[in-house]
Predict the 3D structure of the following.
Amino acid sequence: MNINGVQIDDTFAEAFNMRGTRVLITAQNLKWAYHAANAMTGFATSVIGCGVEAGIERELSAVETPDGRPGVSILMFAMGSKVLMQQLETRMGQCILTCPTAAAFAGIESEDQISLGKNLRYFGDGNQIAKLLPNAKGENQRYWRIPVMDGEFLTQESTGMVRAIGGGNFLVLGQSQPQVLAACEAAIDAMKKLHNVIMPFPGGVVRSGSKVGSKYPKMFASTNDAFCPTLKGIVKSELSDDIESVMEIVIDGLTFEDIAQSMKVGIEAACALGPENGIKRISAGNYGGKLGPHLFKLHPIMHGNLSTEAEQA
């Protein structure tokens, strides 16, 4: 397959099951909503070292939030429900409770509920106040008003937890580091317009893609040497002579379709720059079935097959 002169490898990204949640953060204005959200999603690039993967999904206008203030939505993913609950509670306490004017609300419906402010209420030292308010369906939701030095911290008691997928990805291969980064930036700009996905790495881009395993027994992941330009001629390389830089975009999402759509939009944006701007190939992280059960095959996806049927194509 070829898009605008850029080769699309006949391969697939290999992704794994995760548990996910969404939290809505509001504040006096967007500046402080972003301060809270950036703190909460900091050091959350990969479950390999951070325990959780998190990112800002999108901005919210005042008419989209429960308290009528501007805000942002956050998506957070972990390999299991226990880790997700621990990370959410810790980050709520250290990053949202502490941020001036910030409030937190549930952002996703599910029968599985996890604590958002349920345990944070004890920070009020007995002065916290519970409030039951109906949601759009008329179902009572519990909120907590916790006294803090700037007034009150308002938080919903719990939010939903759902099954999700992590590790969707594609690789951008090109002639130089600046050209590949420019293509990745174009891809991220396009992908950020979609809901239900995040790209958790810095700026959405990874330079240190990894493979499963290592020559060192204590390491369960190591550099993806087949895609490292400086190792051409030293290891079994996937790179031709004209490829001098490779970067990866990793996507976590709520469903297979969300990730497949995001990959399609991102790859199209990267390919739009074309060979005249140094972009030569698009590939994906494929680990031979060692990583996860979800296969995001590039050719079906770029043909518009975005459902789980693409896994079987």
